[in-house]
Amino acid sequence: MSHYSVAEAKNNLPKLLDRMLAGEEVVITRRGKPIARLAPETAPEPGFPLDLEWLDANRVTPAKGPIDTAAVVAEMRRGYRY
Q1: CATH of span 2-38
Q2: Which parts of the chain fold into alpha helices (H)?
Q3: Domain coordinates of the chain in residue numbers?
Q4: 3-state secondary structure of 80
Q5: pLDDT one-digit tens code per residue, 7-29
């Protein structure tokens, strides 16, 4: 891990980025105290975990036959105050 002041980091940013991409951790300091840490961006894992139990418990069955959308909207709005 290497430490650089803000001024050094400003003057050597391409070099610091190369070091970071090579796997080295780069810390930027102000008055000797760490204020930032450069690390390579990690790619997120593809996809996301599925909660199959939740999906099973919340399964929705499609309506059968024709649907009167005006009646559905009226039912949804019934009791709703603007």
Answers
A1: 3.40.1620.10
A2: 6-11, 13-21, 52-57, 69-77
A3: 2-38
A4: coil
A5: 999 999 999 999 988 989 999 99
